[in-house]
Structure prediction request, 402 residues.
Amino acid sequence: MTARGSRRSRVTGSLLALGLGLLLAAASVAALEGACYLLNRARPGSLAQKGSAGPEKEHALLSRGAFEFPSRATERMVHDPVWVRIDPSEVVPVDHQRFMDRSSAVLATKPNFRGPSVLRARDGSTVYSTFVTTDEHGLRATPDRFAGRAKPRHLATIGCSFTWGVGVNDDETLASRLAERLADSHLYNFGLPGAGPNDLLAREQQLGVFSSIREPRGSAIYLLIGDHVQRAIGAMSVVGRWGMGDAYEEETSQGEFRLRGSWVRSMPIRTWLFGVLADRETTRFFQLDWPRADGAAVARTVRMIGALRRSYRAKTSAGNEMIVVVYQIDPNLHAALRDALDAEALPYLDYSPIDWSRITGQPSYIALDGHPAPPTYRALADAVIEDLHLDGGSGSAVTSQN
Prediction:
């Protein structure tokens, strides 16, 4: 055999070996994906978070920080936190979230919108069927049974779909339940479905939504859920699935943020890679995510809320306070969240250990959806009013403790 023939034979052999290796690797990946698919489907619909603490340990984690308001609601009912897993393939959106404004440079809702929001299960049953109304600023309408009465103060609710009230009617949201009892306060619902503090800050920076508040004096409530951490840092679990158009807020200095645009425009390659990996069965089974929701991510999230508070105060009054109401959080991040809120001097109420169903006697969330059910909003509003003395028990609503 000639030298040329020998080289050709070696190259052919190498290519065949490479092809066989790639084929075996692809088969291994496919087998792993298939196995993870079966294991994912075998999981129960609701799982206790790994490493969750029992009631005694929960109380140890919830020691009051320097700026925390005392909460009697957290002493009523505690439980091992349960995280509800929702499979998007189980539901079919019908006239779903038509109130969202996708033409805006930032996540926003349509002004002067009136229409249904309906979600159905694959079997045809209705998950929820609600009616949504927004005002001229795109804020969700809050019915006021005390309309016509002088309102010396305001109370603003800020957050994501849990604040907006996805799955409930206009008169069943947290803001509406608060308005039912607070005759002297004008309620504003600054909830934004799918938002994290990054989107809420971007919407304020671009649209100046806090300018719609007419009463200078008052207070604000930021309703925090654990997903806000992943949204704030642009984690794969968010950007790779549905949040590629969400806001990327760059921290130019400690606590100062500048809007760089959306994740997909600012980081197109990373966003594309996240889109490829996010919905793999392997990713779901091993709960892979990046960047990780760790203590540094929690601190960054809280600093964004602090920036949001500064903007809120600039548009209203420097003495107004923003209270963080922790609705749910990964128990492993409790201590980091408490430390970050204290560092930012943000007062807070931690309601994450409360099982609202034990208070209301009804399911705390909407089945197949995961958003709070109407009775939960009423119980949550009652707890907030009691703990912050918003009904006049202390003579006035909350002001700054700084």
About this structure: The chain has two domains: 1-42, 46-388. Residues 3-42 form the longest helix (40 residues). The chain is about 40% helix and 20% strand. The chain has a mean pLDDT of 83.
